[in-house]
Amino acid sequence: MRLAVLLAGLFFLSSESIAQSVTKKDTTIILISDFTVQAEATEALNSLYNYDFEKAETLFRRFKEKYRWHPLPYFLMGLAEWWKIVPNPQEKKYDAGFLAYMDSSIAVSENLYKHYPEYKIEAAFFLAASYGFKGELYADVERKDWFKAAREGKAALKYMEVCREKANLSPELLFGDALYNYFREWVPENYKSLKPVFWLFRHGDKKLGLKQLKEVSYNAFYTRTEAMVWLMRILAGYENDIQGAFQIAEYLHQTYPNNPYFHRYYVRMLYSTGNMPLLQVHAKLMIQRIDSGRFGYEAVSGRYAAFFLAQGYEITRQLKEAKEYYLRAIQFSEEVKAFDSGYYLYSLISLGEIYSREGDKKTAKKYFNLVKKRAGRKDEAYKDAKQRLKKLEKASRD
């Protein structure tokens, strides 16, 4: 890791040197609203989200040559590093590059913010976005650096409030306010212990936040896809709007078919909506891509795909195939050390139950005991495995 940081420091210009070298070229254009710039960026963004990073980064470097004075190229190059992290946050080798680019975006944005009043709002947008992405990385469950996450979040909030005053100028500026409006109310509603923390912040509005996210999804350019991703997560995870989430997941996968995260979410939504025939096609394709070493397709996606396939085969009484894919779900889970995940624990339980029905009590007990070993005592999977073991022991005595 130290070597990676050192190499990143040598490869990227330091934030301070970038800020000092900035020479503002054209004071008449605002890049995030300029249609010519958007046309130039379209191919690069499409390549980024479709996981053709080589093409995207080549185009972003051209952007950097042309708009070195502006945070946009640095932010977009950081976004490319971010999407290398998204499918598997356990992989930390892209952290240094991502943070370096976001720090560069911040340095250039601060220069505009402080010295060029006509760019203050646009600079505030990139400051809020860059700090926000850094905070999201630090808050990830694999990093859990809460102090840094809070520090970056506080900085993002400061500049988001500046953008909020001028949100009518561009739908891009609505993105941060939309997330704030939704989660400012959602978090204290669902985590009562955090309520006192939020007394210091202005109130939000969940309905308004959703409305704003939809507007950004429809009308923004740079933040459009990111807004769609957040809207999809919120609808599926918090609003119980599975159909709405499915429509977004389907659109994202069809638009960017090589994006492993969009593919994974599409498969999850196929499972949630009960479309088993199409799920089988895409889950098998995901596993094929994992087995062939396709970039971004890894064990996290594999455990989803294998578990869904196994359940489908078990429902149709194709037990040989069901056992095969439950075993693969276990293998993928162990690869990422996700021993407490439902996909892992319930794959073990399902295998134990299949072997129990087939009369192989010894193998069934092995899987049920492994659940007891891996799950916490208060976990439903632990209680389930314990009950099944009791039934097996009772049947043996009888």
Task: Give the secondary structure arrangement, pairings included.
Elements: H1 2-11, H2 15-21, H3 35-49, H4 53-66, H5 72-85, H6 95-115, H7 120-138, H8 146-164, H9 174-190, H10 206-219, H11 224-237, H12 242-255, H13 260-272, H14 276-291, H15 299-315, H16 319-335, H17 342-357, H18 361-374, H19 380-397
Mean pLDDT rating: 88
Rg, rounded, reads 24 Å
State the helix count. Answer: 19
- The total strand number stands at 0
- Beta-strand percent range: under 5%
Determine the N-to-C terminus distance. 58 Å
Spans of at least 5 consecutive residues with low confidence = 1-29
- Succession of helices and strands: HHHHHHHHHHHHHHHHHHH
Percent of residues in helices comes to over 70%
Question: Short summary of the structure?
Answer:
It contains 19 helices and no strands. It is mainly α and 398 residues long.
Any overview of this molecule?
The chain has 398 residues and is mainly alpha-helical. The protein has four domains: 1-169, no CATH class; 170-239, no CATH class; 241-338, Serine Threonine Protein Phosphatase 5, Tetratricopeptide repeat (Alpha Horseshoe); 346-398, no CATH class. Helices cover 73% and strands 0% of the residues. The protein has helices at residues 2-11, 15-21, 35-49, 53-66, 72-85, 95-115, 120-138, 146-164, 174-190, 206-219, 224-237, 242-255, 260-272, 276-291, 299-315, 319-335, 342-357, 361-374, 380-397. Helix 4 (53-66) packs antiparallel against helix 5 (72-85). It is elongated and about 85 Å long. The termini are far apart. Residues 1-29 have low confidence and may be disordered.
